[in-house]
Amino acid sequence: MVTVAAFGSLALAACLLAPLAGSTPIRLAVVFDRSIPFADNVDAQIFFVARLPRVLAAALVGSSLALAGVVFQALLRNPLASPDTLGVSAGAALGAVLAITFGADFSVFGVSAIPLATLAGSLGALAIVYGLAAARRRGASTMVLLLAGVTLTTLLGAITTFVRYLADFTETLQTVRWLMGSLDVGSYGPIVAALVPLILAGAGFATLPRVLDLLSIGSESAAARGVNVARAEKVALASASLATGAAVTLAGPLAFVGIIVPHLVRLLVGADHRLVLPAAALFGSAFLIACDLVARTAFAPAELPVGVVTAVIGGPVFLWLLFRRQ
Amino acid sequence: MAAAWLICALCVTTSSGLAGQAVAAQGGANPAAASAAIPRRIVSLIPATTEMLFTMGAGDRLAGIGSYDRFPPEVERLPRVGGLLDPSVERILSLRPDLVIVYDTQTELKGQLEGAGIPIFRYVHRGLPDITETMRALGNRIGAAAAADAAATRLEQALAAIGTRVAGRGRPQTLLVFGREPGTLRRIDASGGYGFLHDLLDVAGGTNVLADLKRQSVQLGSETILARAPEVIIELHYGASVRTDRLDAQRLVWNALSSVPAVRNRRVHLLVGDEFVVPGPRIVLAAERFAKVLHP
């Protein structure tokens, strides 16, 4: 409990402090000064339009990817598993690249074409993986699922490359930008839209801590202790994939968070999923908020791709923890 | 279509060793062969040089063009041989060219053509002055020096005339955007204080609000736009997939940044055209269009 509270305060502190910092100095007194109309209040616009949506997006994306990483690693009993392993990110990337290449320009409930196509792509990949999992013969190892995921990722990646090959230079630039990942969501609309799949995923995650503890030992022993293994695996798969899809839709691919944060957290709190899941969610939030703060200030006024920062900060920290422990 | 300069720019900036060298590179790996004959079968991989050849009256000497050439309409009948990233040596050789105009960054292609004994003209591009310099160098190389010089001089005079016209009329702080995710203010790419778009803005009487960032392309967040408060925003749309019916909707997206003077004063201009991304003879048209929105 104390541990979770500590991670909670870290995430809360990140959420509260990050919007105060940026490439431009702003005065909080002006931000909340009601006597200045919002349309004329530059400080308030920087705070509410430029920074706050970003910080919220980073919080949601960071926790979703970290949670999905924990679940995939436990479910597939593989420390190298990540939210990308089963092809959901690859599906999302294909959706985005198709939308960019074919100039899709429409919106549904304020969500524009590229995020919609991204979500559709990730759900498509999820459906394929889910179908494979459901069709899996009883007792077949999760290795089959893992291999299927890797194959699907490669296949979707190849199709994405083909579509990019067909694209114009102008679209290529946009595609490259998308593939770099960015948390500058521009408004609250995409965040609200992402909440729908995230809440569904969260409901799934809430049922998982004990099940994951048992599953990570082995499906036979889990079954012997009364876990409906097939059902638990499907819930885990669906919620982790939904969370990944929502995160990629919001921010593009940010590979590093989903694989390293779960390990970092396990090094800090141990293997009990009742601790690991909430701690990973909270730490993932704080971590990505901090990385995005660096991304938007280090080379200000230009921006650094946040994916660069996650790897450059997270990699050495992780290696240090890993070797200190041994 | 032809935003080839973007990629070209990226490649050029990575090869900083070129920085001090003369801009319009001399053609010809094989100087003896190069000076011996006037090229009659030219392959141009670059939209800008293709347009230059037509301007200097040598369009009929083109035997092949790159994937992204769209202008002038005559190019449609010519065989295409790939682009910056995917040139087809086989197709180039099959056209039996006596001069191939390549990007200077196409190292592999240059090696292959040199190996086959085919003269090349290396294209390097950075800023506005390079355009006429390249035109003259290309004209010299193909034996059309007089026509090329005349065309280049016309171009310089036209740009100078625009500069004179807007002189003394105030230079609005301008943000020049050339890329953005449709329907949102995400993933914005704008011109920094370097490159031909920046130079054109300068000629047309605008001050680049990102002039202090000496790069062709700057990835921006909305915070920077709010903080820099441009008086005019020019957003370029180009390429085959432009949806002109959606331009009004695209303009409305900027309203999210209502404290920006350009938004408040309805000075967000969306301009459609390929002349903004081909650093060739049509830049005069691009400069005219900039001047028109900057100084209506």
Low-confidence regions of chain A? none
CATH top level of chain A is: Mainly Alpha
Total helical elements of chain B: 12
Helical residue percent band of chain A: over 70%
Task: State the CATH architecture of chain A.
Answer: Orthogonal Bundle
Q: DSSP strand (E) fraction of chain A?
A: under 5%
Summary of the model, kept short:
The complex is a heterodimer of chains A (about 325) and B (about 300). With about 325 residues, chain A is mainly α. In chain A, about 75% of the residues lie in helices and about 0% in strands.
Q: Can you offer a commentary on this structure?
A:
The complex is a heterodimer of chains A (326) and B (296). With 326 residues, chain A is mainly α. Chain A contains 14 helices and two strands, in the order ααααββαααααααααα. In chain A, β1 and β2 form a beta hairpin. The two termini of chain A are 26 Å apart. Chain B folds into two domains: 4-163, Nitrogenase molybdenum iron protein domain (Rossmann fold), CATH 3.40.50.1980; 170-294, Nitrogenase molybdenum iron protein domain (Rossmann fold). In chain B, the strands form two sheets. In chain B, strands 5, 6, 7, 8, 9 and 10 form a six-stranded mixed β-sheet that branches. The two termini of chain B are 29 Å apart. The interface between A and B is large, with 46 and 49 residues.
Topology:
The complex is a heterodimer of chains A (326) and B (296).
Chain A lengths: L1 H16 L10 H4 L10 H34 L12 H14 L5 E2 L2 E2 H23 L6 H25 L2 H12 L8 H18 L2 H7 L3 H6 L4 H23 L3 H15 L3 H25 L8 H20 L1
Antiparallel strand pairs in A: 1-2
Helix pairs in contact in A: 1-13, 3-11, 3-12, 3-13, 4-5, 4-6, 4-7, 4-11, 5-6, 5-11, 8-11, 9-13, 12-13, 12-14, 13-14
Chain B lengths: L3 H11 L16 H6 L5 E3 L2 H9 L6 E4 L23 H6 L4 E5 L3 H9 L4 E4 L5 H14 L2 H22 L6 E7 L8 E4 L4 H8 L3 E2 L8 E4 L1 H7 L3 E6 L9 H6 L8 H4 L3 E5 L10 H12 L2
Parallel strand pairs in B: 1-2, 1-3, 3-4, 5-7, 5-9, 9-10
Antiparallel strand pairs in B: 5-6, 6-8
Helix pairs in contact in B: 6-7, 7-12
